[in-house]
Amino acid sequence: MNIRIVIYGFIMCLLPVCTQPVFAQQALTAEDVLERVDRNLSSGTRIVESSMTIHGRRTSRTITSKGWSQGDKRSFTEYLSPASEAGTKMLKLEDQLWIYTPAADRTIQISGHMLRQSVMGSDLSYEDMMDDRKLSEIYTARITGKDTLEGRNVLVIEMTAKVNDVAYYRQKAWIDEERFVPLRQEMYARSGQLLKRTDLTDVERIQNRWFPRTMVYKDMLKEGKGTEFRVISIIFNQEIPEHIFSKASLR
Amino acid sequence: MKKFLLKGILHDRGRSLVPVFVVAIGALLTVFLYSWVTGAMGGSIEMSSNFNTGDVKVMTSAYAAEADQIPNDLAILGAGRITEQLKNRWPDMDWVARIRFGALADFPDREGLTRGQGPVAGWAIDLISVNTKEPSRFNLPGAIVRGAMPSQSGECLISEELASRFDINPGESFTLFGTTMEGGFSFTNYIISGTLKFGSARLDRGAVILDIRDARSAFGMDDAAGEILGYLPVSYYDHKMAVAVQSRFNADIKEFAPDEEKMFEPVMLTLKEQSGMAELVDYSKAISAMLIFIFVAAMAIVLWNAGLLGGLRRYTEFGVRIALGEDKGHIYRSLLWEAVMIGCIGSLAGTAAGVALVYALNVKGFDMSGYMQNATILMPSVIRPAITPVVYYIGFIPGVFSMLLGNALAGAGIYKRETARLFNELEV
Question: pTM of the prediction?
């Protein structure tokens, strides 16, 4: 009898502990999910070395670059290869973007409609590259369902812009229910037209966060296999010297 | 009889001068109008041919499908070899490789930072070869407002409107920011050698003209060309000739592209098959034909009346001739022969004067730029009358036939004359 009481008592004690994540997840709102996603994907600073493979209609080519970024306001990228692109640098400060090219030895500001143009023939626009704001800051969200993607349980979330200066009015995201990393994102125009799709894979634990190492961007308005973006190395929250984010560093 | 009639026409000027003059004026106006309408309509097609379409154009199949977007990633590779083959096959035609591009022109301040930017539509053509016809095809020497033609690599021409908007002058430089054939960044500095005004709002808004060698280097298009244009050895576009060239090209396509994938095989399109040109060609032909028909018909009525009046004026003379015993048929035939001769002399004189006039206007041109400030279609700012084989005979249509018809109708009255009434009419 005593043993039964002990076992019963033990089970009753363990029950809240075992079921806590399930109850906690059930209680998660869409905003909570977005915040958790932001915690994985956003950081104070980030230094990333990456390769971008652009599949053209005749050939494919891979461009490597190293980028330094601080929040969503400042970033600096230097292209490392191929030789034709090596030495090209991009600096983003707030909502302004400059490109330096050794071929012309000029620093050129990109603005207006040019920001919506493709970067190096990829499926990414300058606007895509510049907009690194947290999802929770620019979208309101609602969970519309659950699904399975790439063998992972995902929450399907629909986001609608709550600010005006956003490239995509609406987004639909399939977010890993356990790791809180989007595995697929679809970006829509205000008209409802699907503009872009991103598939995020190779999710790894990096510096105590889940982060996708491979992202395939597809501009749905043009033909092609999309642009593959691979993270070669990434360091979060390391101090970056101030001079990196200055126009002087472009030359 | 004909010799006698001719002598009469030449010596009795009181009888023939006015009809000859009227016919000559009619023939002159007919020649001028035909030449003007053909020139104005043909000029627009010719300008499209010179700037965009050629009389025929060779592109890759994939490029042709998206030609409006100028997809240089789908350009022809080995353009030099294909151009040579085309020149060998059709040596009397002019074959030229071109690259069209859209880019951003960035104008620097003193420190080299962006002072202003504007989108541009560019043409890369053979600007500086010794025997190139491309500058005259674009009428570049005549369109230069300030500065001069490029004389060396690294120089270019930009539209005067663009230069004024960004306060830049010949001798200064700017950066062209575009994409390479592979999609990479393309930043190239150019020195402005001169500024242009074409007289077409569409071109003047932001045209940049480079030498094709510079463009190949800037856009990573070594031995590539977006388009190879062919020009027929005739003044105005001849669709039958263009189709004949196209048929032969298509029949021998494998000679031009032995190893290309289907989507990158070269295809040849005639001017009429390119964007919106079929409508323009057909419309221009229909309008020309309609205007010419209306004018020739109007002139025919005028000259027919002249013939009719001429015939009626000689009513008394015919009466006397009948009274003297001349056969009515003989009088009628002599009247018709006279009409033919007067028509021919008048038409000859009118055509000669008309051809001289259109030749003079063709050389000088008629500047219409003042009326075309906001034109959005490709229209030449200087209209030139067309000199085609038709101008040498079109004046004879109203000149001879109307004169003949008018006299034939007027002369029909000869057969209604009765000898008994003649004496009353002649008040004998």
Answer: 0.72
SS in 3 state form for B11-59? HCHHHHHHHHHHHHHHHHHHHHHHHHHHHHHHHHHHHHHHHHHCCEEEE
Q: Which pLDDT does position A16 carry in this prediction? A: 45
- Angle in degrees, CA B12, B17, B18, rounded to 5: 130
Yes or no: say if A155 and A143 are a contact pair by the CB < 8 Å rule. yes
pLDDT 10s digits, A56-102: 888 889 999 999 999 888 999 999 999 988 999 999 888 788 999 89
Chain B neighbours among A 143-202 (CB < 8 Å)? none
Which residues does A157 contact at the CB level (< 8 Å), separation at least 6?
A: A30, A33, A34, A141, A142, A143, A144, A172, A173, A174, A175
What sign has the CA pseudo-torsion A41, A42, A48, A51? Answer: positive
Q: Do B188 and A108 touch (CB under 8 A)?
A: no
**Nearest-neighbour CA in chain B from A88: distance (Å):** 9
Q: Assess contact for B163 and B119: CB atoms under 8 A.
A: no
pLDDT tens-digit profile of B162-211?
999 999 999 999 999 988 998 888 999 999 999 998 877 778 888 999 99
Residue B417 confidence (pLDDT): 61
CB atoms within 10 A of CB B397: 19
Work out the number of other CB atoms within 10 angstroms of the CB of residue A47.
16
CA torsion through residues B225, B231, B237, B242, sign = negative
What ipTM does this complex have?
0.74
Kindly determine whether residue B184 and residue A57, on different chains, have CB atoms separated by under 8 Å: no
Of A59, A101, A105, the CB nearest to B182: A59
